[in-house]
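INFO  loader      accepted 1 record
INFO  loader      residues=265
INFO  predictor   begin
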Amino acid sequence: MPMFETLYQTLIIALCLGGVALLVSMLLTKALLKLLPKWGLVDKPDFKRHIHTVAVPRGGGLAIIVAFVAVVLSAFSLFSFQNASIIFQDILKFLAPLAILVPVGIIDDKRGLRPKTKLVFQIVAAGIAWYFGIRLHSLFGLQFHGWPCLLLTVLWIVAFINAFNMIDGVDGLASGIGIISAICMAIISLSFHRYVFATIQIVFAASLLGFLFYNCYPARLFMGDTGSMFIGYVLAVAGLKLNARLPRLPPSSSPFSPAEFRSLT
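INFO  predictor   done
INFO  writer      dumping tokens
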């Protein structure tokens, strides 16, 4: 039987991949506890904005990124299933903007960047995502194309990135919200037979959970802008993908109709 054909099969695959991502994330996070200070990635208390009283390593989001990207790319390059090559290409397009966001996050965690500078790079990354087909086509029943679609897509992605950047001031908050959001989207995707999408979200949640073990209060390290921008970007794009693939049912239709489920496979 081809992979990702049944709910039971998908759950087994997703949980196995999630377990690998969890383990990799935990091991990398533990390693970063020692490596980040050597690389100069440390958040020193200023007794004004910060509540911690000792220097804490910053940039732990690298563990989340590496765990997620490594597991997803490895798994979907090895699996054999229907439309595997097309899905793998879509994953590469989805990851492409990270080539900008991750270095910018690392530089900001190490030296600090002006907000306007970060915003410019975030807009460029969002523009790349739009170029590769990750777009906000509809909102409140209205359809958007061309420049309006580009502007709304960039606004959506940049807003998510900065939202998670802003809430990353409380231990475990950004990663905790990311886990809850990813699990919710995975459940919705499973109910509509979007098995590959659900699997990716479960791997994402597991990668965050591995980091959360070291980020709960009192945090032993911070994810920094490297991690918060990554979480915001992934959830922004996941929301667009989920919105684009869910069916538009007439008012009289039930979203839980078995006939509607079968039409999506």
